[in-house]
Structure formats: C-alpha cells, structure tokens
Design goal:
Layout lengths: L1 E3 L9 H9 L6 E5 L3 H15 L3 H7 E5 L5 H8 L9 E6 L10 H11 L4 H15 L3 H4 L9 H7 L8 H14 L9 H14 L4 E7 L7 H9 L1 E4 L6 H18 L3 E2 L1 H11 L3 H15 L4 E2 L1 H8 L3 H13 L3 H13 L4 H24 L11 H7 L1 H6 L5 H7 L3 H10 L5 H20 L4 H13 L3
Parallel strand pairs: 1-6, 2-5, 2-6, 3-4, 4-5, 7-8
C-alpha cells in the first residue's frame, strides 16, 4: 500500500501508519523515499520506536546498515532468522540501491555533483552505483579514459542529462573512487527475486524490514512487490514558502511541547530571518535553543540572535560545532561556505585550534576531579547553577584550564559534553597536527583548503 507524506488528499500520512502500529497492525516491509532527508529520517525513527518500543530490546533486535554495504544474501538470511530476544526484529537499510535503474541516472548525477565537495564519501558511493547502472567500468575511465566518452556517447548513456560540465566533475570523482580503491558490484536478478519471495511469506512473524532511498524506479518488480506487501511513504521536498513554514511550525511545536518550551512571536520571526524556515536548519536551531534556554520556559528573540546567527562568525561556530561533534559532512560543507564568504584560512585555523584546545582543557577538567557535581546528562540550566560557579571560583587552581573556564558558561558546557567523543591522546595529537599545518600555511605554497580538509578528515573520519 503506497502512502505519501505531507500532502492532504493524496493518500494516508505517516500518522496513519503510526496509528496502525499503535493498534498492533504491522506489515513486513516499509519503504521510505524522497529528497526530504530530515522528515524521512524522523519517520524512520518514529516507525522504529513503534515497532520496538523498549530501547533495551533494540540493542539485540535492531540491525542497521547502509546501502553501500548491503548484501542480498546476508539481508535475506537475516530476515528469515528469528530474533535474539522474544519480540519484534527490525532490519533497517539506509540509502538502498535496490530500487535504482537507468531511469534514475540523471538525478543520481545531480547528487554526485552536489556532494562531490561537501561529502566525497557519498559522492563516490553514488558514482559507483552510476557505473553499475550505466554498465561502465572504473578502469576504463581512469588515467584520462573518461575523455573517450564524447557528447553523443554520453547522451546515449544518460538521455536526460546534457553532460554540461562533466569535464570538471567527472575526472574528480573518477580520481576519488580510484584513490579509495572502490570496486563496482553488479546487481543479480536471482537475488532480488529471493528477496521478493522472502517478503512474500518467508519471514517469521514479527520480523520487519525498513528500506530508505532518495530516488526509486517505480517500475521495478521489487518496488511493486513492496507496494503490495508493505507500505511505501514518499517524502518530497516541500514547495512554497507558506507550506514550508507551516511544516516547520508543526514539527517545532511537537518538539517544544515535549521539552516544556515555547517560542515567543519575536523568536519565531528571528528564526525565520536566520534560517529561511528551512526544515533541517530550523529544527536544528530549535534543538540548540532548547539547550541554551536551560530551565526557562520561553525562548526569546535574543536567544535566537545569540545561538542561530548566520554571520561569518556564526558560520565559524557551525564549523567548530561540527568538528567537536565529529560530523564530517557538515564540517566540509561549512568550510566551503566560509571560504566562499572570504574568511581567511588563518582565521579558520585559529578558530579550529581554539576549539581543539577547549576540548583538551575540558578533558583535563573532567580528569582533575573538580567536577563532582557534573553529569554528562545534565541540562545547561542545571550546569549553569550548580557547576559553573564553583569552576569560575577555582579558575586559578590550574592555569591550563583558565582559558576555557573564562568563557561563557554555554561554551564550557558544550566543551565538557563534546570532550567525551575524544581521548586525551587524540586531542594532543590534533594540536600537534595544527602546528604543522599552520607552519605550512605560512611558509609553503600548499593549497589552504586542502590542508584544512585533510585535518577535518583526520578528526571527523576517525570515529
């Protein structure tokens, strides 16, 4: 049964599926696809929580994999294997390639070009899938072999794409895939047939499959099988400013209500100016504002100005936040934005060095035993009242921590929370790397962007 999310009058919504699950009615498979990644991911989380409500059960009965690593045989074997613990078993395959075909080559190329700079890993994975669908070989394209594909050949491979600009992006992505040692894997029809049979009746009762994708070929047999046996939910990008703002307000209202918060009218207006009511940006900003507000029930415009600004300084804050959160995609995208804004590489390096130093100082503070009242799970309001005053009072006891403790309490709170993602040895090593990069920036002709990108890869890719 096919569902479309967010469009009244065009089928049931996500809420209808969740209502079915609340009544105990389930189907073997759920396919969620579309370009609106934030709503799609939110829907997966809600369906997962409805299928396996107990978080402890998810440790044993929930299995998540990415489409780049999906294996038909292993997937089918897991689907027909009973759960480890009594109850439901759920397999989630994110960004599956199962529903792609030559009919989705044009949007696939658009994604490759869009992701090549900010998210090279996903761009490379998309390109390998492009090669498989187009029946091309990476070996034939390397070492300048891509030049053999002239305009006529390209139009035969991808009729819906003009090929404009491919002399720029194509050699870059070919080199990227070669450097990563990637190998294309072809799709086997008999294995997709097996998956159809498993979904049709080979799964134990209580076993379920969630598949997500950005684009699908609705003519594929597997898509038709899932439409018949399960639920298909579509998450297209919201068009129109009014509808987009309404979607943000609805999702934000639920998020704020659950945390006992509300936004003043001035805060809503400020949020719109800062984010343009983009769904991902707005919800991410509200999550930050909830933390920033602490125990206060109402979030004001001044809070939005303090946390969500889109100035160059605030974009630097986004970069350091992505760095401390080890989020490579956001870090690379924000670096590109800063450089495009004209921010000097040495300025960016100074802010990155400051963030790493703060994280190391936070690590030292935690190890010092001075944070007896601190808990990694406490909210900002409680930290500000019970922990920060004693830290501020004893700032002179350890000179190495003065630099961090003298900052705004929210900066200290974030550093302590994020420091748990790193070891002390890692942070010390990153500071040494930054010294070498700083020297290279000032004394050699190396490309600043590449030097900083390599550092971000070292920090965010080493999870």
């Amino acid at each position: 049964m096919a569902y479309q999310d967010g469009d009244t009058g065009r089928g049931a919504s996500l809420e209808a599926v969740l209502a079915e699950l609340k009544r105990g009615k389930t189907v073997p498979c759920y396919l969620l696809y579309g370009e609106e990644e934030f709503r799609l991911r939110d829907a997966v989380e809600k369906i997962t929580a409805a299928l396996i409500p107990d978080v402890r059960d998810r440790e044993f009965n929930l299995f998540v994999t990415d489409g780049e690593r999906e294996d038909f045989g292993s997937l089918c074997e897991s689907l027909i294997t009973p759960p480890l613990l009594p109850g439901r078993k759920l397999l989630v395959v994110r960004n599956t390639r199962l529903f792609q075909s030559k009919n989705v080559l044009a949007p696939l190329i658009a994604r490759i070009r869009e992701r090549l700079e900010p998210d090279p890993a996903r761009a490379a994975a998309d390109f390998m899938q492009f090669l498989t669908l187009a029946e091309l070989s990476l070996d034939d394209l390397r070492d300048g072999g891509w030049r053999k594909i002239d305009d006529d050949v390209w139009r035969k491979i991808v009729p819906d794409d003009s090929g404009e600009g491919r002399e720029v992006w194509l050699p870059k992505v070919v080199e990227l895939c070669v450097s990563r040692g990637l190998v294309a894997s072809g799709e086997k029809a008999d294995e997709t047939d097996r998956l159809e049979r498993v979904l049709a009746g080979g799964m134990p009762e209580g076993n379920h499959l969630i598949l997500t994708a950005e684009t699908v070929d609705r003519r594929k047999r597997l898509f038709k099988a899932v439409s018949t046996l399960g639920h298909v939910l579509t998450f297209t990008k919201i068009k129109g400013e009014a509808r987009q703002q309404q979607a943000v307000m609805e999702m934000a209202a639920k998020l704020l209500e659950g945390r006992g918060k509300r936004l003043s009218s001035g805060a809503w207006a400020a949020l719109g100016r800062k984010t343009g009511f983009g769904l991902r940006e707005s919800i991410g900003a509200i999550e930050k504002l909830i933390t920033y507000a602490g125990e206060r029930g109402q979030i004001e415009a001044a809070d939005v100005e303090a946390v969500v600004g889109r100035t160059k300084e605030e974009t630097v804050f986004d970069l350091t936040g992505a760095l401390s959160g080890r989020n490579l995609t956001v870090a690379l995208r924000t670096l590109k934005e800063l450089l495009n804004q004209g921010v000097a590489p040495l300025m960016i390096m100074a802010m990155i060095t400051r963030e790493i130093r703060f994280l190391l100082h936070a690590k030292l503070l935690i190890a010092s035993g001075r944070l007896k009242a601190y808990s990694a799970n406490m909210d900002y309001g409680r930290f500000q009242k019970t922990v920060y005053p004693s830290l501020k009072q004893g700032a002179g006891e350890g000179e190495e921590q003065v630099d961090l403790v003298s900052q705004h309490p929210f900066v200290v709170f974030q550093a302590l929370k994020n420091a748990d993602r790193f070891t002390r040895a890692e942070l010390a090593g990153y500071l040494e790397m930054l010294v070498r990069i700083d020297l290279a920036l000032k004394s050699t002709g190396q490309e600043p962007r590449l030097l900083i990108e390599r550092f971000l890869l070292s920090v965010c890719g080493n999870r």
